[in-house]
Write a structure and sequence with these properties.
This protein is mainly alpha-helical and about 120 residues long. The protein has 5 helices and no strands. α2 crosses α3 and α4 runs antiparallel to α5. It is elongated, with a radius of gyration of 22 Å.
Length: about 120
């Protein structure tokens, strides 16, 4: 399209709010179900992580960084689809990162093992 008027017309049609609303309205039920499933899975993971932290005797004020670690593992496993040996190696890198930030490596390893069923990589 070399004609500026034609481009402007195409843009106006494409960005018509009524059309966009109709498209989103038709997609919303499926989007809602997808979001419900994602939130349920995330909440289940966080509950398991909190139970692990509680069993390890971690003070509640320190839950935030440990949960951040767990959420990063969750994101890599669920949203980015990393699994197998690659996930084991990524989990080790994240454990080292959060341990360097002052978290207890044994607690991080417990989260990795008990919540995500990931063992330590072989040396």
């Amino acid at each position: 399209m070399t004609d500026p008027n034609q481009r402007l017309t195409a843009w106006q049609i494409k960005t018509d709010t009524g059309r966009m609303k109709a498209t989103l309205d038709s997609l919303r039920p499926e989007m809602l179900e997808h979001y419900k499933a994602a939130v349920a899975s995330l909440c289940e993971m966080e509950t398991k992580a909190r139970q692990t932290l509680n069993a390890a005797g971690v003070h509640t004020i320190l839950y935030v960084p440990y949960l951040s670690y767990a959420r990063q593992l969750y994101k890599l496993s669920r949203q980015q689809g990393i699994s197998g040996e690659s996930f084991v190696l990524v989990a080790k890198v994240l454990l080292d990162k959060w341990a360097a930030r002052g978290l207890n490596p044994a607690v991080l390893a417990a989260i990795r093992t008990q919540v995500f069923d990931v063992v330590a990589p072989a040396p």
